[in-house]
Amino acid sequence: MTTDTPSFSPGLEGVPIAESSISRVDGQAGRLTYRGYSIEDLTQHGTTFEEIVALLYDGDLPGKARLAEVRQQLEAARALTPRQIEFARSAASLTHPMFALQAATAVLGPTVNDFEPHVDDAYDRGMALIAKVGHLVGVIAQAVAGRPYEGPRPGESHAHMMLRMITGEEPSALHEEVLNYLLILQADHSAGNAGTFTARVVTSTKAEPESVISSAIGALSGPAHGGANEHSLRLFQSIGDPAKAQTEIERLLNDRYKIPGFGHRVYHVKDPRAIVIQRLASQVIVHQREKDLYQIALTVEAVATEKMGSRGLFPNVDLFSGCVFAALDIPIDFFTLIFAASRTAGWVVHLKEQWASGNRIFRPTQIYTGEDQRVFAPLDAR
After folding, report:
1. Is 172 helix (H, G, I), strand (E, B) or coil?
2. Which stretches within the chain are classed as H helix?
3. Catalytic site includes residue 158
4. pLDDT one-digit tens code per residue, 335-359
5. Rounded to 5 degrees, what angle do the CA atoms 92, 210, 330 make?
């Protein structure tokens, strides 16, 4: 039996939008892999974000020579012009840091708009975006805090640069290691999430890479996507006292309030990234303020899992990540900017993969539900 009406899948749920070998999300087993390597293995043994950039681009983990090359490329590509720095600082005074980052990323683009003849430059442009977006996050953080610009230092790792510029303090070795793992956790999550899908859609229009990443940052800013980590921590702050958490969470759930950081469209078990985040929390949370917030998060997990676990709803990465960001002294408005800086690595590799696939423009259809043919009446006759 055939029909002229196509089937409708709200939110494109279950509809494959690309073939990709970059990362795999197994929602039933609760597994996330980059190029076949588990996220658990990639966030141990001092692995750095630079190693994951090489892995995503090359398809395998780098040796020492390749890693040194990637580090050198990222360090060389970080530089921003004085006008780009001025623009980012100015944007930070006008709007939310996430929107400032989106705008500042867009103006990294060239003065021409004709990328197709230069598609062979996708690797270099992508590496430059990874480096510069991380730098821009630091620029915006300094502006918001009212601090003067102090840029990257020679020999500084990506994580060290970002943490120092954001907090205004020299990071400890532990804090640098933890930020590396946070960047690794968020570097990619398949082609189907909203930000990466946006990146691939905009890539399919043959747009410049800077426009692609700016568009993806816009998608990531929403509280149903990257912004959930901020909303989770704000919820915990509003509860305040761990002793009140169970009663308050039960009340919110009875009122059908959607707990940020709980449940996932793909994972039907606990998000493997949440498990890694909890391991990091045990290492880095030392002050009572963050201990209280983390205890509230654990209570949220216990209460919400008891009520909703049977429906396949469990903690995702955002339930606990805010507690770890706070323990690193990162301002709450910058949680999602760090997510964007990390995910830029995945986005630029998806851009390259999209072009390699033939880069057919995305053009889905729709099911029209409006009025049929109507008779137009001139204004005087209405």
Report:
1. coil
2. 39-42, 49-58, 64-77, 82-92, 97-106, 122-144, 158-167, 173-185, 194-204, 209-220, 228-239, 242-254, 272-284, 288-308, 317-327, 335-356
3. no
4. 999 999 999 999 999 999 999 999 9
5. 40
* Catalytic member of 231, 292, 318, 350: 318
Q: CA-to-CA distance for 187 and 182, rounded, in angstroms?
A: 9
pLDDT in tens, 268-313: 888 899 999 999 999 999 999 899 999 999 998 898 888 888 888 8
Active-site option among 135, 158, 231, 264? 264
- Cβ(135)–Cβ(105) below 8 Å: no
- Examine the residue annotation and report whether 318 is marked as an active-site residue of this protein: yes
> Domains in the chain and their CATH numbers?
23-218+332-356 (1.10.580.10), 228-327 (1.10.230.10)
| Dihedral angle sign, alpha carbons of residues 229, 231, 236, 240 | positive
Predicted TM-score of the model (pTM): 0.93
